[in-house]
């Protein structure tokens, strides 16, 4: 997700069905209390928010290049 892959591309890399990817992403969004949005960067922003919240990514300009 952080690389901006769509469900089909993620599924291909993981050798699972795109529908399975969609279910997992829905579960992640639900646990993070985020609404799924059709915006192009919503998935990447969700991952970044999670990483910041868990202390795995510190907010700041240096991380904007990720």
Structural notes for this entry:
52% of the residues lie in helices and 0% in strands. The protein has 66 residues and is mainly α. It has one domain (7-65). The longest helix is centred in the middle third of the chain and has 14 residues, at 18-31. It starts with 6 loop residues before the first helix and ends in a 13-residue tail after the last helix.
Taken from the alpha-carbon principal axes, the silhouette is globular
- State the end-to-end CA separation: 13 Å
Strand content: under 5%
The helix-and-strand class reads mainly alpha
> How many domains is the backbone divided into?
1
Question: Which quaternary structure do these chains form?
Answer: single chain
Q: Could you give a short account of the major beta sheet?
A: none
Order of SSEs, N→C?
A: HHH
The whole-number mean of residue pLDDT values reads: 77
Q: What is the helical fraction, as a range of percent?
A: 40-55%
Number of helices: 3
Low-confidence stretches: 61-66
Name its key features.
mainly alpha; single chain; globular; 3 helices; disordered C terminus; 66 residues
Secondary-structure map with pairings?
Elements: H1 7-14, H2 18-31, H3 42-53
Helix pairs in contact: 1-2
Overview in brief:
By secondary structure, the protein is mostly helical.
